[in-house]
Amino acid sequence: xxxxxxxxxxxxxxxxxxxxxxxxxxxxxxxxxxxxxxxxxxxxxxxxxxxxxxxxxxxxxxxxxxxxxxxxxxxxxxxxxxxxxxxxxxxxxxxxxxxxxxxxxxxxxxxxxxxxxxxxxxxxxxxxxxxxxxxxxxxxxxxxxxxxxxxxxxxxxxxxxxxxxxxxxxxxxxxxxxxxxxxxxxxxxxxxxxxxxxxxxxxxxxxxxxxxxxxxxxxxxxxxxxxxxxxxxxxxxxxxxxxxxxxxxxxxxxxxxxxxxxxxxxxxxxxxxxxxxxxxxxxxxxxxxxxxxxxxxxxxxxxxxxxxxxxxxxxxxxxxxxxxxxxxxxxxxxxxxxxxxxxxxxxxxxxxxxxxxxxxxxxxxxxxxxxxxxxxxxxxxxxxxxxxxxxxxxxxxxxxxxxxxxxxxxxxxxxxxxxxxxxxxxxxxxxxxxxxxxxxxxxxxxxxxxxxxxxxxxxxxxxxxxxxxxxxxxx
Length: 475
What we know:
By secondary structure, the chain is of the alpha/beta class. It folds into three domains: 50-272, no CATH class; 278-332; 348-474, Glutaredoxin (3-Layer(aba) Sandwich). It is 60% helix and 8% strand. The chain has helices spanning 43-74, 83-92, 98-130, 132-135, 139-156, 166-177, 184-197, 203-216, 219-243, 253-275, 280-297, 308-332, 348-355, 363-369, 386-396, 399-404, 420-429, 458-474, and strands at 13-19, 32-38, 358-360, 376-381, 409-414, 436-440, 452-453. The radius of gyration is 27 Å and the shape is globular. It starts with 12 loop residues before the first strand and ends with a helix. The chain crosses the membrane at residues 64-93, 105-128, 140-162, 183-213, 219-241, 253-274, 280-300, 312-332. It is an enzyme of class 1 (oxidoreductase). Its EC number is 1.8.4.16. This is Thiol:disulfide interchange protein DsbD.
């Protein structure tokens, strides 16, 4: 919802906003009031930066929670779980008092988490200095990373084991065994050493998280995310210290199933990386093959008497197999959206729209294209931006949208390389990256109230486009 608010030039102020959330059936939350500061010189970008910062902060909270849950899940993998009783015995050193045991467990877990946090912070700084967000999107990087995740997936399936070199692993284990257990200092040293010893077991998800952190260039957020991962991995030990050996989970077939589930997720990550390089129908067919393979592995076509739990797995396998077949049919028809595998292929008019859209990557060239006596639509785009492709497929390829864009000069500002000049251009506009759609009038002035940031559906885009046309006509 957009509410136009006229402001005097170069005058700031405060806006007091009161809002209340309500459900469709009448349940309402308590009213909330917020005071927004509006700067005088550049009101629009400042407001945008404040809102975007709030959204980014909320996003990092979600990612930190996800990292904690991921660390908790990694504890129950077959190569980490057997270490839990051993580490418990070494760290606690037979101490029976719950208070003392809890202190020792915290002394072990916190340094381990801090070791991971240091790794995340370094990756955030490293990614920011080298602009890895763009450099890691080229084929010569995406393909090796995809192969790496494929290798990790095969390791999860038990085809081979990933370990540190024997000499290095033996040296670390020797240092760990020589550390006195039962003391706070000894537990802390063990925590740091264990982050090195168990790293090959968790290298696959850890590599994925580090790759994401490098793309955000946020050393603080990256450090907090890896710290949460370490805390998640150490939570079971804290519970063991607080409740004794009765809380130790037992090994069994479910651990193998969890390892296989991690393997499937890693295969999905590899395919997600390659999806940016593959034609849409081929990528859809690959998703179908993955889903069908998992369905067959779950026994979708094994029509024999089974226990109730295996029947549920078989039903899930049948659903995945059906989805895989649907993806194959959709790929043969030219579809490319995994969420709508039977959706229609892009219309021929989409090609015409692409031919009528100029692609620029230089901010100066973009500035020279504005103010030429015709309204301009600027699509901020990057090849590595998944949301940009969704916007293109769901909005710009829509015939109704194409009909309404005939009055605009269409420019795609390509930020695939993410150069310094492009990032400075984003900063001047108060944007944090693609996707975004900007509307300029015939004099080269942006209709800020109509700006689109992030994903949007065709109906909402048409409404925003109509608003932009009214603003342009009033100038």
